[in-house]
């Protein structure tokens, strides 16, 4: 893992710099982000943690837009983990409300800009009203083929793997799968991310050097960047810097 904190290019990029000095040929196809540090951001300002999540949702909007503008195909955001259910009820309620508001307020932006919404995780565990807006947004944006915004909701990598093992075991028992034909590709097809290429780049904010149960199978060869910036302070500029760093990484996939 590489930790870096680059603050050197603070100025805003304008539309005439739409290429963002980034080589489109070596752009990551799939970027995944662990958005961490909302609580610490709020604490530093003697604010309620929920204020950190609210500011975090604004950053989500900005990063989605930047992904679309740079031509990234898939953005997966760790928005709510299986472990997050253990947070205080008021915080869970605030996060679910923010998510619902985000989906409602961004629908037009998604439709106007060819963005497809997808969700991975135990969607059935989300509150009914959130599930409704989620399913509606996914249905309305289903045919879009620009950026895929993939939200990990009530998601846990281990739970996903357990679910996959269970499903493959049932199909094997029923004679639909021959154990000799269980391959990496078959396993991938039984995950929530079926049909979605593995992330090329994983970004974690707030400096913690952990994976926190995110996309455990899918990140086998993913390039990882950790920044000390707290998610509510994360910016388009820093995101673009990380993309540039990524372009200088040599990806060998275990080969020489
Ligand atoms: C981690 O920060 C962040 C979360 C658990 C939730 C992420 C949610 C958002 C960014 C806002 C809503 C999302 C969308 C998609 C609209 P933390 O609370 O663990 O921070 P801490 O480690 O500093 O306490």
List keywords for this structure.
7 strands, alpha/beta, Undecaprenyl pyrophosphate synthetase, 7-stranded parallel sheet, 256 residues, binds farnesyl diphosphate, disordered N terminus
The helix/strand class is: alpha/beta
Number of strands: 7
Quaternary structure of the protein: single chain
* Most strands sheet: 7 strands, parallel
Instruction: Provide a count of the helices.
Output: 7
CATH top level of the domain at 26-155 and 198-246 is Alpha Beta
> Which spans of ≥5 residues are poorly predicted at pLDDT below 50?
1-18
| Shape label | globular
Beginning-to-end CA distance, first to last residue: 19 Å
**What fraction of residues sit in β-strands?**
5-15%
Query: What is the helix content?
Result: 25-40%
Strand order of the largest sheet: 1-7-6-2-3-5-4
* Cα-based radius of gyration, to the nearest Å: 19 Å
Provide the CATH topology of the domain at 26-155 and 198-246: Undecaprenyl pyrophosphate synthetase
Bound molecules: farnesyl diphosphate
């Amino acid at each position: 893992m590489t930790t870096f904190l680059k603050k050197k290019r603070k100025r805003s990029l304008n539309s005439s710099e739409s290429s963002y000095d980034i080589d489109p040929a070596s752009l990551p196809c799939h970027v995944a982000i662990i958005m961490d540090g909302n609580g610490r951001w709020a604490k530093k300002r003697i604010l309620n943690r929920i204020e950190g999540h609210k500011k975090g949702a604004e950053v989500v909007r900005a990063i989605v837009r930047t992904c679309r503008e740079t031509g990234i195909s898939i953005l997966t955001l760790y928005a709510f983990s299986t472990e997050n259910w253990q947070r205080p009820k008021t915080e869970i309620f605030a996060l679910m409300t923010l998510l619902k508001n985000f989906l409602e307020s961004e629908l037009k932006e998604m439709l106007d800009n060819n963005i497809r919404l997808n969700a991975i995780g135990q969607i059935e565990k989300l509150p009914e009203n959130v599930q409704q807006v989620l399913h509606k947004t996914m249905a309305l944006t289903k045919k879009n083929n620009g950026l895929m915004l993939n939200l990990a909701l009530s998601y846990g990598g281990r739970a996903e793997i357990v679910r996959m093992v269970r499903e493959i075991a049932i199909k094997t028992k029923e004679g639909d799968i021959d154990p000799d034909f269980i391959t990496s590709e078959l396993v991938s097809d039984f995950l929530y991310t079926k049909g979605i290429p593995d992330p090329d780049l994983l970004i974690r904010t707030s400096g913690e050097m952990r994976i926190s149960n995110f996309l455990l199978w899918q990140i086998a060869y993913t390039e990882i960047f950790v920044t000390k910036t707290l998610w509510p302070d994360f910016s388009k500029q820093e995101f673009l810097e990380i993309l540039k760093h990524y372009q200088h990484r040599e990806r060998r996939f275990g080969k020489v």
